[in-house]
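FYI - complex with calcium ion, inputs then prediction.
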Amino acid sequence: MRIVEDEERMALTIQQLLSTQRMMSDIASDGEAGLDAAMSGIYDLIILDIMLPKLDGLEVMHRLRDSGWQTPVLLLTARGSVSDRVRGLNAGADYYLPKPFASSELLACVRALLRRPGELRADTLSYGDLTLSTETGVLSCGAESIQLSKKELELMRLLMGSGGAPVDRETLLLKVWGYDSMPESNVLDAYMSFLRKKLQHLRSHVEVTSRRQIGYCLREKEA
Ligand code: CA
């Protein structure tokens, strides 16, 4: 695995994190060195920062794909920079991770990309204009995406999995929190309002609706 990142601390943190999972990696600290390394063909995955000296990550991406290399690339982007993410994916990156990211998030992406080299991740759920990566907890709508917390991910997985049918409160509470730590019922409502905010942020046409006495479901808003 090759890490192309000029910020030494970030690069070392990633390297150390990978080594805890017995994954070996080398570091390149500028775009040119990164591209050379990537084109050597000996790496199974390239973790590529966008802001790099000499050659930026997007340019590295372009040249790599133009030369026919299909090595999976995980792009590290600045949070909120939608245009970078879109350009990165258009340039042939397999996945992007906005900085700062959680260790678990990075490892989940790396594992998924190593499992399916050169392909987009397949363990996803869709509903309406939404796509959920159940492994990373990234919820996307068009070019926008947002990270879900662990509980939000589990709730969203259940709601998307039911395909719009209502899921009752009891089921949601039990499956997400379990018998032992079942919270007050209003905790569920609080989480649903977090999800609603995230859907609004994504400008999704999907909304979370509450069915009195029954539970919650997803619904596509009328245009
Ligand atoms: Ca950088």
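Residues 5-7, 49, 51-52 surround calcium ion (CB under 6 Å). The CA atoms of residues 102 and 108 lie 10 Å apart.
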